[in-house]
Design brief:
The protein has 471 residues and is mainly alpha-helical. 50% of the residues lie in helices and 3% in strands.
């Protein structure tokens, strides 16, 4: 029986003719999309040793945290960081200094620094003073807390003055007490202020044996290692045999490393890497090939996607530290000498802390170091390992890399101090019971903490941009 072609059949044939190229393209695109997506193949689902998912963190960070941090970190209190870039490397002498102009860091001139940042405040001594008096850039040892009028004439003279030498001794005692809780080694000299906005973190061309030795020393000599792990970098598949505390240490360091690598890929030096030009002009932008080299399974022994997941782990740990220290940070003055700007900074930080506290699934530090004397010993090993890593940052041969390495290590160390020192576990509800001596963060610790969290936040934001570029 002969079948006459109907009008519907003609329409169907025409439609298939039009759609066939698109179907072929879509199949090709999906196949290549899966291939290109290998860097992110494991970046989904729950985050190891945490209760929330990658997607939850992505939305929370990119929509709520990242925009707020970008407006906060340009403020004077947070853009000036005091650091000693001349501290000698304590582990080896040939520090292989980077000769490229992009490695150079220009410290601030005195007139560039806000007046309120020039004074060093002694702990507890100036607690009840106004910010204007407290932060005066003068020798604050000369003022006595009490005077000779504090005596009863009928009972005889009682000298209650305290000399500047006594105050210096008190400071040494306090520094010794703090050293028992700090996860970073305090620098031997105060260093110089650096404007972080004028010295942004980005790829400078610093690489090779010197850079590799830094991370090799961190992973091989200062991370807890699973048994039978001969590789330079610890295999993620083998860390599950370690206890929670040792897994946390590795994931935190790995996440920091991944974050730094993302920064370098997102702001990669695209112009020629010569070191002869006087004017330090250069072009920076995202380098997709470099990102794939650092994180794809083929070039990293299948470890790259796990490293990206550890970034989220480190982010959640620092997020928890901010939430835990929020009662302290909400009372900080953020003093720079400009009353209007300082007030705006306090409002901005309180807004971010409110968002941080609203996140439902923080990292849970309370399940760590709970096994009596053995746990206390492990906790001290944990702290000493991280202190060594903070010292290794002085061995970085590129000053700009050293600046950001020290700042991010300092910020992470401050987060660990908040979580594990025990001094931020008991908060009194009112300022009258608030003990500044027990709960004290130096200004540099606060600046490092917020900037380090800002670096992690930007890494997750940039990660989404790389994901879109790959697709």
């Amino acid at each position: 029986m002969k079948i006459e072609p109907s009008e519907n059949m003609f329409r169907t044939l025409i439609l298939l003719t039009l759609l066939l190229p698109s179907i072929v393209y879509c199949n090709y695109f999906m196949t290549n999309n899966e291939k290109n997506d290998q860097c992110f193949c494991k970046l989904k689902g729950s985050i190891d040793d945490c209760s929330c998912s990658v997607d939850t963190v992505d939305y929370f960070n990119n929509m709520k945290i990242y925009p707020r941090l970008q407006s906060l970190l340009v403020r004077d209190y947070f853009r000036f960081y005091k650091v000693n870039l001349k501290q000698e490397c304590p582990f080896w002498t040939d520090d292989s200094k980077c000769a490229m102009r992009y490695c150079h860091v220009q410290p601030c001139q005195d007139e560039d620094i806000p007046d309120g940042l020039k004074g060093d405040v002694l702990r507890n001594i100036h607690f009840n003073e106004s910010p204007v008096d407290k932060y005066k850039p003068i020798n604050q040892f000369n003022d006595c807390l009490y005077s000779a009028k504090d005596h009863n004439k009928e009972l005889g003279y009682l000298n209650t003055t305290i000399s500047s030498e006594n105050y210096k001794d008190f400071e040494l005692w306090q520094q010794y007490d703090d050293a028992q809780d700090n996860f970073c080694v305090k620098e031997s000299s105060p260093g110089e202020y650096v404007n972080l906005l004028l010295n942004p973190e980005r790829y400078t061309g610093y690489k090779g044996p010197s850079a590799h030795r830094i991370w090799r020393s961190i992973y091989m000599e200062n991370c807890f290692r699973p048994e039978n792990s001969p590789h330079n970098f610890i295999q993620s598949s083998k860390i599950n045999g370690m206890c929670l505390e040792k897994r946390v240490f590795y994931r935190v360091i790995s996440g920091l490393h991944a974050s730094i690598n993302i920064h370098l890929c997102a702001k990669y030096l695209l112009s020629p890497k010569d070191s002869l030009a006087i004017v330090p002009t250069g072009q920076w932008g995202p380098n997709l090939q470099e990102f794939q080299n650092r994180f794809s399974p083929e070039t990293t022994g299948s470890e790259g996607p796990n490293w990206l997941k550890n970034l989220y782990f480190t982010y959640l740990l620092e997020l928890r530290a901010l939430a835990k220290a929020a009662p302290y940070l909400e009372r900080e003055e953020y003093y720079t000498g400009n009353r209007a700007h300082d007030n705006d900074t306090r409002l901005a930080i309180n807004d971010i802390l409110a968002v941080v506290k609203s996140f439902p699934e923080h990292f849970n530090e309370s399940v760590m170091f709970t096994g009596g004397a053995e746990a206390l010993l492990l906790k001290e090993q944990f702290r000493q390992h991280f202190r060594n890593i903070s010292r290794i940052m002085d061995c970085v041969g590129c000053d700009k890399c050293k600046l950001w390495g020290k700042l991010q290590t300092h910020g992470l160390g401050t987060a660990l101090k908040i979580l594990f020192s025990g001094k931020f576990d008991r908060w009194e509800p009112t300022l009258n019971h608030f003990n500044k001596k027990t709960f004290f963060l130096e200004r540099s610790e606060i600046v490092a903490l917020i900037n380090a969290f800002g670096r992690l936040s930007e890494s997750i934001f940039e990660l989404d941009r790389f994901r879109q570029m790959l697709r």
